[in-house]
Amino acid sequence: MAKKEPSYFVPGYHLEFSNHLVDKLLDAIQRAEVYHEPQKCTNFGFHVASPSALKLSAEVKMFILQTERLILRDFQPGHFDAFFATTNDPEYQQFYAEEEMTRPFWQKIFTHILEGTTETPRTSYQLAICLSDGTLIGTCGVRTEDALNQQASFGCAIGRPFWGHGYATEACRALFEFAFTQLSIHRIYADTKAKNGRARALAEQLGMQLEGILRETQFFRGVWWDTAVYSILKNEWNTRKQDADKRR
Ligand SMILES: CC(C)(COP(=O)(O)OP(=O)(O)OC[C@H]1O[C@@H](n2cnc3c(N)ncnc32)[C@H](O)[C@@H]1OP(=O)(O)O)[C@@H](O)C(=O)NCCC(=O)NCCS
User: Fold this and answer.
1) pLDDT digits (tens, 9 = 90+) for 8-38
2) In this structure, which residue's CA is closest to atom 35 in ligand 1?
3) Burial of 197 (0-12, 13-18, 19+ CB in 10 A)
4) Which ligand 1 atom lies nearest to the CA of residue 138?
5) C-alpha 129 – ligand 1 centre gap (Å)
6) Cα(14)–Cα(1) distance, integer angstroms
7) Three-class HEC string of the chain
8) If you take atom 21 of ligand 1, which residue's CA is the nearest one?
9) Domain extents for the chain?
10) Which ligand 1 atom lies nearest to the CA of residue 192?
11) Atom of ligand 1 nearest to the CA of 199
């Protein structure tokens, strides 16, 4: 189908859209009515919207970031089943305690995530990661845990069928760029089970440094688990960005 409207590349910028507009935008993208110009995308910028979407952004109700292949958006109440479904895999679940894998457990987390979308001032951006056709594949988020010291925690999880495509890296880069440029965050940190190789590879791919291993911090599934702690500072992020720009 012919592409009708050029899209705008907005480096380091985010827009907020109403729920209705996001659905319209997803629909337009699906029908290829909104230009995608990957050559204009960088891993650190956002490629956003049609002119009509930009005009309507004044409605400002929903948060959205767009990357080359993904849309990161606020969760809506109707997303719970799709969200819960992403956790339903033994490989995904292996680093979580059994009680952390139940529907009530995730329901509680999901309610907390929804509450975060209406908080003022907003401190938590735990976003749904969607493919450009709207399929919900996982979540990533930054949470300002200590505003005074500009410290944010970070986490990411993707459904098993979508591993190995670089989606987590792509989503988290956009999220980090947003956090460091729009939220005045000085340090983003994450912890994961030391044995969670994929989560550690993701942290390293994002330029996070290993701060240390905390020994035997949790006991579940019959064994003690070590925790690996990673972080990245704003100046480190900016240096990586400049290096990436030079290479381009
Ligand atoms: C942690 C988790 C999000 C990592 O997912 P992932 O798919 O491995 O991570 P990425 O999206 O960065 O993909 C990296 C892989 O995609 C490949 N890839 C393909 N296309 C790529 C691209 N365009 N860009 C980057 N990587 C790409 C990489 O080579 C790498 O492959 P490999 O795993 O064979 O080495 C996922 O394992 C997960 O959700 N686990 C369950 C929940 C969990 O434990 N979360 C962490 C809690 S702390």
Assistant:
1) 333 333 444 445 555 655 555 555 444 443 3
2) 164
3) exposed
4) 39
5) 13
6) 28
7) CCCCECCEEECCCCEEECHHHHHHHHHHHHCCCECCCHHHCCCCCEEECCHHHHHHHHHCCEEEEECCCEEEEECCHHHHHHHHHCCCCHHHHCCCCHHHHCHHHHHHHHHHHHHHHCCCCCCEEEEEEEECCCCEEEEEEEEEEECCCCEEEEEEEECHHHCCCCHHHHHHHHHHHHHHHHCCCCEEEEEEECCCHHHHHHHHHCCCEEEEEEEEEEEECCEEEEEEEEEEEHHHHHHHHHHHHHHC
8) 166
9) 8-247
10) 48
11) 1
pLDDT tens string 187-236: 999 999 999 999 999 999 999 999 999 999 999 999 999 999 999 999 99
Look up residue 36 and give its two tokens: 């995608």
Query: CA-CA distance, 66 to 130, in Å (whole number)?
Result: 10
The Cα 139–Cα 83 span in angstroms is 8
Tokens encoding 228? 């690996």
Range 8-247 has CATH code 3.40.50.720: no
pTM for the predicted model, two decimal places: 0.83
